[in-house]
Amino acid sequence: MAIQWPLVLFSLLAGAGGAMLAFAGLSQLLGGSRTVRRRAVWCALALFVIGGLCSVAHLASPLNAISAVTNLLSFSGISIELMLLGASFIAGAAYLVLTREEGRDGAVRVVAVLAVIFGVAIGFFCGHGYVIDAQPTWNSETLPVAYLGTSLALGAFAYALVAAATKTPAGKAANGAATSAVELGGKLWPAVLVCAVMDAVGILAYGLFLGLDAVAAQGVLFWGGAVACGVVGVLACAIAGMTALAAKAPLPLAVAGVACAAIGGVALRMLMWACATGYIDLFSHGIPSVMLHL
Amino acid sequence: MRKGLLINLDRCSGCDSCIVACKLENDLPLGHFYNKVIAVGPTGTFPNVEKYWLPSQCQQCENPACVHVCPTAASYRDPETGMVLIDKEKCIGCQYCIYACPYGVRQFNEDAGVVQKCTLCAQITADGDGVPACVHNCNCGARFFGDYDDPESDVSRELAKYPEEAIHTLPDPNDAKPLTRYILSPKFASWKELV
Amino acid sequence: MTKGTISRRGFMKAAAATGAALTAAGSIPLLETTDQAFAAGSVERVMHKTACHGCTNCCPVRVYTEDGRVVKIEGDPDGPLNKGGVCLKCLSQIQTVYSPRHVLHPMKRVGERGENRWEAISWEEAVDLAGEQIATAVKKYGPYSYWSARGGGGAYIEWETSGLDYTFGGCNSLASGACQCAMPRDFVSTTSVGFNCCVDMDNVDRWVGITDNAELDGTRRDDTERVFVLWGSQPHSSKAAHGGHGLTDARSNLGVKTIVVDPYMTAEATKADVWLPVRPGSDCALMLSWIHHIIENNLYDEAFVKHWTNLPFLINPETRLAYRAEEVWPDYVNPAADPAGVYDTPAYVCFDAKTNSVQPFPFTAPENCAVDPVIFATATVNGKGAKTAGQIYKEEAEPWTLEAAGETCWLDPERIREAVELYAKADFGGLSNGVFSDHQENSSTAPLGALAIDALLGYVESPCSAFQNHGAASRTADRPTQRLGVFSSTFERYGLGWTTGLTKAENDRLLDAIVADWDAKGRDGKEMQRYFFQSRCDTMGANEHKGIHQWQTCAPKELRQAITTGEPYRPRVMYEMSGNKYAVMGPSLEWKKAYDEQDFVIQQYPNMTSFTVQTVDLFLPTTEWLEYDSYEAPGTHFNRHYARCQVTHLGETVNPFVSPYQVAEAAVEKLGAENVFDPDAYKVPFFESLEAARAAWAEQMGKGSWQEMLDDIDHRFTEEPMDDYMAYYQYKEPVSDGLPRGFATMSRKVDVYSEAMLRLARTGFPYMYPFDQPACDDYDPICTFKEPTESPVEGQPGYDPEYPLVITTGRLPHFHHGTMRHAPFIREVMPAPELKINPETAAEYGIEHLDWVKITSRRGSSNARAYLTQGIAPGVLITERFWNPECFDETQESITPGIEECGYNIMSADEFQNPCFATNSYRAFTVKIEKTERPERIWIESEQFQPFMPTLSGEPVTEEVF
Ligand SMILES: Nc1nc2c(c(=O)[nH]1)N[C@H]1C(S)=C(S)[C@@H](COP(=O)(O)OP(=O)(O)OC[C@H]3O[C@@H](n4cnc5c(=O)[nH]c(N)nc54)[C@H](O)[C@@H]3O)O[C@H]1N2
Ligand SMILES: Nc1nc2c(c(=O)[nH]1)N[C@H]1C(S)=C(S)[C@@H](COP(=O)(O)OP(=O)(O)OC[C@H]3O[C@@H](n4cnc5c(=O)[nH]c(N)nc54)[C@H](O)[C@@H]3O)O[C@H]1N2
Ligand code: SF4
Ligand code: SF4
Ligand code: SF4
Ligand code: SF4
Ligand code: SF4
Ligand SMILES: [Mo]
């Protein structure tokens, strides 16, 4: 099937935004910098908006998005994605409103928990809509896991990037490394590693599900994009984050991680479209329409 | 009521006329189709071969995946006639139904921004007595239209002439319940599952 | 939906009135738009009934108009064969009638040939120019400088071209069909069975639609076993909604079994009980093996063969003709002789089993027969050893065991056995001999073989038989007679030709009367008779290939060579009444050299083709079938013959039966009636105006007027009563002389051994009677096998390792010959010719599915897309004729006439022909192949065909020009 770029970008951007939101929520719960969190949430909201615009570009006309919204209760794959997108956006926005000033801890905690839940869920459900019997190469729960993993990895590195780029008000002199060091109660890089592992697991699981023949037919996408960047690159960056490198060069590390995760996430999604065969794709046959030598 | 098509492959000669009949009736531009005729085979090795044609269009599923995934209810199954149709006014062109249809018989119409598929010629058949253009004009009288629930309908009467082993549906991945039946007698060719 | 007869009638009246006014004023209207009914019309949908002319078969259709514009075509469910079905060619007429390629005005070439530059001119000017060119050539170079060309099956104009030929005294009319279509089968059936059943032999409609063991609703009445043989015949393509539909009904509703003899796995083969994928060109060997097997295993219908065929007749070894009783017993009195001396029923000679001696064998009812004739025997007659015709056939078939045929035909002998036994043991059978044999050297011998098989099995005038007489006309009161060349009325017009079944005295009397008629008209009748005879002898190739007289055509190769060399004379002005000779006649590039020698070429056709672009000087636009009235086409639907009824009319298109009249009239005027051979000849098949044509067709239909016929919208056809239509075994019915009717042949029996072939070669009999045309070598009187001149079999003289593959053609449902290549919805599903090739062979050449392939014969190359299939033998190729009108589309950067890219007939041959019928070799010649690239300018993607989408639907509905 033709690669649907708007959907590739939407699912990755919205998923990554969700992951950033979740990281912000975790930071809120486990401890970290309010500035980083607020900046990350702003980024997440931006990603939701850009992702949303991308998905609208998939529709025949932008106005059609309204019909999609007015039919939310159809509980189709799209409506679940839309609902989660809306819920995540609201959670993020609420978080920003509630944390404009100090205090309101109870409410902020609730919002933080919701942010974690919605933020993770959106990554998963952006992929889950594709798990349908009609597309045998999509019809596996490894697909949403891979969507989730790639979203988490991109969001995690992006969060690390925000952290690394933020100078904490506490110690004006402190560089990004210091800021990162306190994020998630000091567990930022382990959390990134967890996400990277999920990303690797997701990509490899979906690759295994597709089978060697299918992925071999898309060699560059799979081996180059998904495996070399999405798995090896992402894991390398995350593992490097567990070393002294995290303190020495958090910014370049985060940038490298974002780049690898982004490439991996895009490659995985391209792979999904490129391998789509349809269950019985009767109209895919050109002229003459013929099924030969069955 | 379960209205749909029945195609007797014992009769079909693969002449492609139903494609053109459909396009003219439904005013489809070049490159757009509601139906196609696919040659299945020849399978085997010369001269021990068999072949048949599979005229293909929406299978009028009773549990249609295209309807389930549609975010706007543009794709719907008419509760009265059982016909699966697309309300073009409501369609937002998200194409999820294309991905979800197990048979790949929907097409995106770029110009109109909506998804299209066989309508069972609703413009002719809606009032209850017309038959679709592809049925009316079928070169060999291989296509039938009617209510599968009505034993007196054209489809039921044609089905009744054939034994179980000659009656087929496309394989059903997950209870989509395609309504369209195909007749193919084993003496002409064995039915291929195509998956 | 309302039947809009009222507004339709209003239109016709308005049209008639305007037409009359204009004629009175003496002017030719240029694009006169009129029509109150249409102009003032609401958007009411009006239903019309007419018959499709998308191919030979004339399926009845319903056409809907809104404001005079055609908006929908659908099959007429009342059609007894198609039952509402129509094929994509028919449906696509809505695109071709409004196609940007449908020419609406006469066009004069302004650029060089090939440039496709034209100027629109008035009909007045066009007719004048055409007349002038013909007149000038005839004056300067004599009558033979004018020649005509026509189409084949499904063309509007066939034998009618002779009307113009004999106006000026010309004698060459080139047919795309004829030698290559049905004429050989027509000759065989007409001379051997006494009626033209070539139509049945390839149009299986008559015997599959509603056979007698079924009620009209398709319910079976008995459980007899019925078997059809489709021998190189594929009704699903060539009779799509017609015989194709009928065959489906026969198979599905009636359980009729089928045997398919075809190199390719056609739609018929996919459903066959036995499929024999015969090697192209080897059919006669297979036929002889069937004949051999039937004789060896006593599977023949002994009673029928003995009494109703000429196989028991003893043959004079010197003359190769059957002994007449009088030759052996000079005083013999033939009991079947007509005392009035009008009808002729000869007595022959047989070997009688009762007396073990040679005995006279007069024509009697079998139960009154005095002798018991032995079919296979050798006896001494007049002191010489003589064989029966049956014995001669038996010996010819002797070497063709199933094994031998298997080897020669590339078949499994067991499968041949299965097929022949299934057929021979059926209760009823029929063999459809398709056009395959009319396209190769065996065009005379294969139909004789098919005839022999059915005659041996008694499948003649029996239910299912292809040799079927239908209707009241064949149930004669007297001994049936037959005048040969029913498509050649000129023989009769000038007093030439023998009527089979009449005595010599009676024949002479009839011919003398014709001569006397001319004398009475102030012409020298004898002189006209002699001129006509001489001109027939001077027709190109007429001496070697006397079978061409059957449809009054000429031998293609000889004509081509005469034009290029000028020997014996050069025809110079051509009036082409068909579409694209480059696409339908080979070898096309050799032909181009001939056409290039033409002084002036006129073509009438609805749209421009490669031929127009490449060769034509003056183009006369004719009607598409939705603009057309007629009753002329041969295609019938079971017992019905439908009329074509004009639904709309665009621009200045003219009915193709009217334009030749106008042209001839102009030429005669310029030459002066006294200077032409027969100044009225063109008035016979052609018409001055559409009104005149309608009047004639209405008369043929037994109606007071065309309008009267139209008014009864549900009966725009004539119908043969069912009792007459389904009258089997007519040969057994007694007639006025007290004998069974028999057949309209020389012997009054089925002449399985074709004396007609021998007589034809020796004197041109029966056409040339009372004159003798100089003799040529005898034509084979029975089926014989000859390896094709170009052979794919190693060790054969015609084998050449450079051209190792054998190629052949067949039809597609999508196109009718050269038509419809400009129909966008057809082209998008069949954009390019497909070369069907076995994967094994393809692999040898590194060719994959849908690769482009260059195919090359000794005459030239063409291209097609590979279609890999196990439905064809390794080493065998099949593809279809093509041409590409997109090659000269405005959107192209440079143009070609669109024939060299995908022109199968560039490769086909005329240097080896059937001796009798001058049949070219379009099938079973050899080629080599190589992988190539898509030729420039060829469109294959749907969207590319946009320039062919209809653009004329806004054109006003116009009046007739004439
Ligand atoms: N290689 C190869 N060559 C072949 C054959 C083959 O099988 N293989 N087949 C051969 C045979 S059997 C034949 S009969 C010839 C056929 O050769 P042609 O008869 O020359 O082929 P057509 O293209 O059908 O040309 C006849 C034309 O009459 C025109 N016509 C039909 N209806 C109308 C009408 O209503 N109005 C007007 N004005 N015109 C109309 C059609 O447009 C049609 O194109 O080709 C022969 N050539
Ligand atoms: N759609 C369509 N219909 C038509 C026409 C058309 O052009 N298009 N033309 C009309 C005319 S004029 C005619 S004459 C009829 C002809 O009608 P058919 O006789 O049905 O003509 P074809 O399909 O050309 O040839 C019949 C079969 O011969 C096979 N064949 C080729 N070579 C050989 C061989 O050497 N031996 C044997 N046994 N078979 C061989 C081909 O595979 C093909 O299936 O169709 C008429 N109807
Ligand atoms: S029109 Fe009828 S016979 Fe022809 S391909 Fe379609 S279903 Fe088959
Ligand atoms: S075949 Fe496809 S389009 Fe038709 S009802 Fe079933 S799922 Fe929907
Ligand atoms: S493309 Fe249209 S019909 Fe299909 S799922 Fe989307 S809204 Fe529904
Ligand atoms: S029923 Fe109508 S819309 Fe459907 S394939 Fe047939 S002609 Fe087309
Ligand atoms: S079979 Fe021939 S006559 Fe009949 S609908 Fe098709 S093109 Fe027309
Ligand atoms: Mo023909």
From TrEMBL, chain A:
Membrane-crossing segments per the record: 6-29, 41-60, 72-98, 110-132, 144-166, 187-209, 221-246, 253-280
Record carries keyword Transmembrane: yes
CC terms in the record's Gene Ontology section: dimethyl sulfoxide reductase complex; plasma membrane
Keyword Transmembrane helix: yes
InterPro entries named among the record's database cross-references: DmsC
Keywords: Membrane, Transmembrane, Transmembrane helix
Entry superkingdom: Bacteria
One Pfam family this sequence matches: DmsC
Gene Ontology MF: a single term: dimethyl sulfoxide reductase activity
Gene Ontology BP terms: anaerobic electron transport chain
Name this polypeptide is given: DMSO reductase anchor subunit (DmsC)
UniProtKB/TrEMBL annotation, chain B:
The 4Fe-4S ferredoxin-type domain, residue ranges: 3-33, 49-80, 82-111
Keywords: 4Fe-4S, Iron, Iron-sulfur, Metal-binding
Superkingdom assignment: Bacteria
PANTHER family: PROTEIN NRFC, PROTEIN NRFC HOMOLOG
Organism: Adlercreutzia caecimuris B7
Gene3D superfamilies in UniProt: 3.30.70.20
InterPro entries to which the protein is assigned, alphabetical: 4Fe4S_Fe-S-bd, 4Fe4S_Fe_S_CS, ET_IronSulfur_Cluster-Binding
GO molecular function terms listed in the Swiss-Prot or TrEMBL record: 4 iron, 4 sulfur cluster binding; metal ion binding
A Pfam match: Fer4_11
Record's protein name: 4Fe-4S ferredoxin-type domain-containing protein
From TrEMBL, chain C:
A Pfam cross-reference name: Molydop_binding
Cofactor (UniProt): Mo-bis(molybdopterin guanine dinucleotide)
4Fe-4S Mo/W bis-MGD-type domain boundaries: 45-101
Coiled coil: none
Keywords from the named record: Iron, Iron-sulfur, Metal-binding, Molybdenum, Oxidoreductase, Signal
Taxonomy, superkingdom: Bacteria
GO molecular function: iron-sulfur cluster binding; metal ion binding; molybdopterin cofactor binding; oxidoreductase activity
Family to which this protein belongs: Belongs to the prokaryotic molybdopterin-containing oxidoreductase family.
PANTHER family: TRIMETHYLAMINE-N-OXIDE REDUCTASE (PTHR43742)
Name listed for the protein in its UniProt record: Tat (Twin-arginine translocation) pathway signal sequence
Species of provenance: Adlercreutzia caecimuris B7
